[in-house]
Amino acid sequence: MEFEYAEALKRLPEQFFAKLVKTTQALMKEGHDVINLGQGNPDQPTPEFIVKELQEASENPKFHKYSPFQGYPFLKEAIADFYQKEYQVDIDPTTEVAILFGAKTGLVEISQCLLNENDKVLVPDPGYPDYMSGIALANASPIDMPLLKENSFLPDYQKITDADLNDSKLMFLNYPNNPTAATATKEFFDETIQIANKHHICVVHDFAYGAIGFDGNKPQSFLQSKGAKDVGVEVYTLSKTFNMAGWRVAFAVGNPSVIKALELIQDHYYVSIFGAIQKAAKTALDNGQVAIEELNEVYQRRRDAFLTNAEKIGWYGGTASGSFFVWMPTPKGFSSEQFAELLLERAHVVVAPGNGFGESGEGYVRIGLLDNEVRLQEACERIEKLRLFK
Ligand SMILES: Cc1ncc(COP(=O)(O)O)c(C=O)c1O
Question: In ligand 1, which atom is closest to the CA atom of 238?
Answer without folding.
Answer: 10
